[in-house]
Amino acid sequence: MITKKVIVGGGTEFPLNGQLVLPDDLTERVPAVVFVHGSGPSNMDEQIYSLTPFKDLAEGLAERGIASIRYDKRTYAYARKVAKLAGVVTVKEETIEDAIRAADLARTIPEIDPERIFIVGHSMGAMLAPRIDAEGGNFRGLVLMAGTPLRLENIVIRQLKQASGEGSGIMKMVVKLEDKIFSKKFDGLYDMPDDEARRKKFFGGTSLYYFKEMGRKTAAEYLIESDKPVLIMQGGMDFQVLKDVDFAAFQKLLADRPNVEYRLYDDLNHLFVKGVFNSIMLAAREYKKKQHIGPEVIDDIAAFVKSN
Questions:
Q1: CATH superfamily for domain 2-150+218-306
Q2: What pTM value is reported for the model?
Q3: Which of 42, 65, 210, 241 stands 20 to 30 A from 129 (CA)?
Q4: Which stretches of the chain score pLDDT less than 70?
């Protein structure tokens, strides 16, 4: 395995530190993947407590003859600068622009086949992957890990309800109150003028326009318009995105489409490591347990990339 430092978006206002990982003993150009983070600030490894999913995947794919590029998320590298743009920032500035820049960078690397660049989006990155492809990523195929065809606000409210159902005492009361307050904020969102949505805050510096802009077109709507190869992956013990709701919805909405494949891993969680508690209230405790993504997940991604 060969690793090299790269800069995604060099020469722009937001250059990002990244890492190129190449297989050893290259004799020809190889396919590559670009990793796209889930929600929130995140480093290039997509580190969540003790887990480093993108690092695991990058190293595993290199062992299987596939290159990759991963990079620090803009909201991680430029947290204060982005925070000053509250009400203006959407997923376009937060995620999409940089993913396209990473794909463009991959096509300039001599060891990589420019015609075989794939996107691997995780969680919210999976929700955005079809849009990234349509808006300039121009990928050969898409891998959606723990994504959903539902809108982001639906997932946020659902997770609050899950937490309320699992909580107890004061914590249960607090989460119920948050659910009530936040749910009300989304009333009439898509009829709300854009300027008003930009002024109104959901939480912290995130405006309602962030949700409105993203929710105008879902991942499933983009996928229906495309015939590119897609691999949709889901953990059976994922308590953030649900196999019986989100994964099942993809299967229903994209039924009988020969370009779409599905993989369900019964004992894996949202980070595609072994599930422990199956509880959203114990997420931090679960993600603090040191684990690595297993070979079955990496094998499936590698097989998908090599066959397309």
A1: Alpha/Beta hydrolase fold, catalytic domain (3.40.50.1820)
A2: 0.95
A3: 65
A4: 86-87, 165-181
